[in-house]
Amino acid sequence: MKVIPGLEGIAVAETDLSLVDGQKGLLLYRGHLVKKLAVSHSFEEVVYLLWMGQLPSEKEREDFQRLLSENRALPEHIYKLIIQISSRADLMTVLRTAISALPLTNDWPPTLEQGAKVLAVIPTMISCWYHQVQGTDIPVIRQDLNHTAHYLYLLKGQEPSEAHVRALNAYLILTAEHGMNASTFAARVVTSTQSDLLSALTAAVGALKGPLHGGAPSEVEEMLDEIRSAESAESWMRARLESGERLMGFGHRVYKTQDPRAQALRQISEELSVEDDWFQLALETEQTALRLLEEYKPGRRLYTNVEFFAAAVLRAVGLPKALYTPTFALSRTAGWCAHIFDQADHNRIIRPQSLYTGTIPQED
């Protein structure tokens, strides 16, 4: 056996859920270009695609949206749990705990209805923690708003603008699924033991909680906050590059060309830049950064990644940094559930080997 650290380059499953081609800059969900889905479909429609294998008809979309909207209320014991631990636990810890305590049965295989119930209630969990920390009241649950709009409504207490809904909807779609990443692999490993949906999702949230997986957009926002204006972008970034530091939001372990998710969010940013100066700052800073990266690191193929424009979108719609990774978890729950269903449908327990490097005693 040969040890492959991090399992890099090792395929552990066959799936038609998504294709991540880093050389061609290609991301597909069930055969659909994700950058097109992000600008022309709702988050609910894309979740349906991931879970059911095709985009929904109008009736299927309405039925699925109704299933989600009818399950938005927090069970009383979950509400009390979040209130009790919110003062001493970060939001990802709260999500991990609250999801594990949801009142779902341990069905095998996990069901689509179970996935919908979890996906529906995560925005409410996030907003419950947020309002408890802020000392404000959580708004009354509504069923007449779509998933993205209702999430923003729960945080702000008022209906969001169409521009903000469109921007966040694109972000949620673009981050809903991304192949066999660490959190998705964790979910599939747990599912392969024939454990339940909540156990698999709890493992996934625990993996996403790690800063190497889910924390980059806040660092991009900090960079843009320090730059402040397009005029100061070049001097700020030159100083950083000359000191040997990275520019956050550029380069990706997988994509060696343009990240298709960044392309889609750039399109949204360009359309909304007339309404929000933050988008304009991001667009101008990106162009300066790409020029300087080619100057300082020629041939390295460092392109804009999704975290760069994710920071622009999340900041523009008014989300505080504490909600960035939890919002990522909200969207990625769609992909996690899709992989859990896929693993259950073609199940074989995932049990890799290890090589022993210790001593072996001599037998008498």
TrEMBL record:
Catalytic activity of the protein: oxaloacetate + acetyl-CoA + H2O = citrate + CoA + H(+)
Q: Which GO terms describe its cellular component?
A: cytosol
| Keywords associated with the record | Transferase
Residue positions of the active site: 252, 307
Q: In its UniProt record, which GO terms are filed under biological process?
A: carbohydrate metabolic process; tricarboxylic acid cycle
Q: In which pathway does it act?
A: Carbohydrate metabolism; tricarboxylic acid cycle
Q: Which CDD domains match?
A: BsCS-I_like
- Please name the InterPro entries in this protein's record: Citrate_synth-like_lrg_a-sub, Citrate_synth-like_sm_a-sub, Citrate_synthase, Citrate_synthase_AS, Citrate_synthase_bac-typ, Citrate_synthase_sf
A single GO molecular-function term is: citrate synthase activity
Q: Is the keyword Coiled coil assigned to this protein?
A: no
**Protein family per UniProt:** Belongs to the citrate synthase family.
* UniProt name for this protein: Citrate synthase
The organism of origin for this protein: Melghirimyces algeriensis
